[in-house]
Amino acid sequence: MDKLRLLLPKGRIYGNVISLFSGAGIQIVLPERAYRPIVNQDDLEAKVMKPQNIGKLLELGSHDAGFTGYDWISETSADVEEVMDLGFDRVRIVAAVPAEIDDRALRSRRIIVATEYESLARRWLTGGGYDFLIVRTHGATEVFPPDDADMIIDNTSSGRTLSENGLRIVDTLMESSTRFFASKAALRDRAKQKKILELKMLFDGVLNARNRVMLEMNVPRDKFPTLVRELPAMRSPTVSPLYGDDGYAIKIAVQKSEVPQLLPRLKELGASDILEYELRKVLA
Q1: With a cut of 70, which residues of the chain have pLDDT below it?
Q2: What pLDDT digit, counting tens, does each position of 273-282 carry?
Q3: Which domains does the chain have, with CATH numbers?
């Protein structure tokens, strides 16, 4: 099989993607000032590109799969297939204006709109009936108002930066996160499709493990029926008899968020020798 050609996103989301690969057992090392990382798998090769370009490069078929924000796929109208939503780097694409500007004033004249998202902005502004002129930005969009723009359309995770720059959100155009995409050509190739789905399985395992921990405990025989009925588990707990027939050893994988309430309850129900440890992958 030809190598699966991957595109990795340059910039702030690169670290999260590399961490995901690392959790899957795939090491990716990017030498300084290079764009072609070293990958410890013979059937993979990678190149680092700006997230804005990844969708269209996949559509053209020069690469097989890649990682970028859903916002950039929407912005470029890239004809690609989403393999999975990785769930991190969540942002909203919003329209924001200086806090003192009245909404009615925005519709009484032509407004200047600063944005990196020209296509998304144009569709939203046209649909909203605005008379507008778009100024293309290249980062730091929030500094344009009030003297260089009447409105911005930009991404935000919490809205804090906008607020600190005296801006208020007037609408949310869409929500986005980092996702795994594949070219349609690669998915028509059975060998490449198989490799893409194998990566998806590994990533699912890593992401599932990040939200769970393993709990092990011992419980006396007489306490077992009551305790086991209250145990949360992915399916059912793993139970094995203790040496000497004195009780049972139990293993359960649980959500991390359940642990603070669960541990005291387990003690009340008679569990002892409780161990908690991290999981690396969880494959259902």
Answers
A1: 1, 233-234
A2: 999 999 888 8
A3: 4-87+177-209 (3.40.190.10), 91-176 (3.40.190.10), 212-278 (3.30.70.120)
